[in-house]
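> forwarded from #structure-qc
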């Protein structure tokens, strides 16, 4: 019976060692999991902080973009108004149409007679336009 008690004691001792080993291993696993969890929490906090910063920057860009769009719309309106005023001025002054046409003819290389005939300009005015064109063509020294 001594052997049986000894074997039983040995089995019990092995069982206790096994339980201790499993408990120790489980505790190490828990510690490792807790460390990983803490690391993940830190990563999440950093990501949230970066996300908030990016959101703030995006909001600032949105405000700046809206401001630029308003400025562009305002400038487009000013340009449109300038074109309208220019067209109104040209339509009120019939002579300006003739001079505009005369300038275009001169730019295209028309001679004195053609400018006088097509635009009904006096000779002196047509000569002045041709003279100005020639001066503009001269190289600057």
């Amino acid at each position: 019976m001594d052997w049986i008690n000894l074997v039983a004691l040995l089995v019990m001792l092995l069982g206790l060692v096994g339980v201790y080993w499993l408990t120790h291993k489980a505790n190490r696993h828990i510690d490792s999991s807790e460390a990983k969890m803490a690391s993940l929490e830190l990563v999440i906090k950093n990501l949230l902080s970066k996300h908030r910063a990016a959101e703030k920057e995006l909001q600032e860009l949105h405000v700046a973009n809206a401001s630029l769009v308003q400025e562009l719309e305002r400038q487009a309106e000013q340009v449109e108004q300038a074109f309208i005023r220019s067209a109104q001025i040209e339509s009120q002054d019939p002579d300006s149409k003739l001079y505009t046409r005369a300038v275009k003819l001169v730019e295209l290389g028309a001679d004195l007679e053609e400018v006088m005939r097509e635009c009904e300009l006096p000779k002196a005015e047509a000569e002045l336009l041709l003279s100005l064109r020639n001066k503009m063509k001269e190289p600057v020294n």
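QC bot note: The longest helix spans residues 2-92. The mean pLDDT is 85.
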